[in-house]
Amino acid sequence: MSGAAQAVILTPLTIAPIDALSFGQITRPTAAGTVVLSPAGAITTTGGVLTSTAIAQTTRRGPGTFAVVGEAGRAFSVDLPTVVILRQGTRNMRLSALRSNWTPGTVFSASRSFALSVGATLNVGANQTTGTYTGTYAVTVTYQ
């Protein structure tokens, strides 16, 4: 009696950043609030934050976008952090509720690619110090 053996080698997953997650320009609020940027690019605000859609923008405003490539027909998952800190000198703001356009059960198409979009909630403090706040966040894509 003999047994069978096999191995399947999959195309490695790759992910390449296209556009940065950018909330655009926001007027410093007198009361704390949030700017919510959806993976589709819709912006809403809460609290004392004035909507950034009311301000003429001189920089790009929109979700973070990535090109994800993998094995055609294979399901995959996307993991994002729960909190990210943006810094400007010793000052910071918190990103929370990071979310993407990926849904459970998504598989790579015949083109082997998926256009991933990431949105988040920016928590802005009352009288937040002016300046440019920056940070990074991890995006993990794995086969299921």
Plain-language structure description:
By secondary structure, this protein is mainly beta. Helix content is 0%, strand content 40%. The chain has no helices and 9 strands. It starts with 13 loop residues before the first strand and ends with a strand.
The ordered H/E elements are EEEEEEEEE
N/C terminus separation: 33 Å
Question: How many distinct beta strands?
Answer: 9
Number of helices, counting only DSSP H or I runs of 4 residues or more: 0
Assembly type of the shown chains? single chain
Which percent bin holds the helix content?
Answer: under 10%
Structural class, by secondary structure, is mainly beta
Low-confidence stretches: none
Shape: elongated
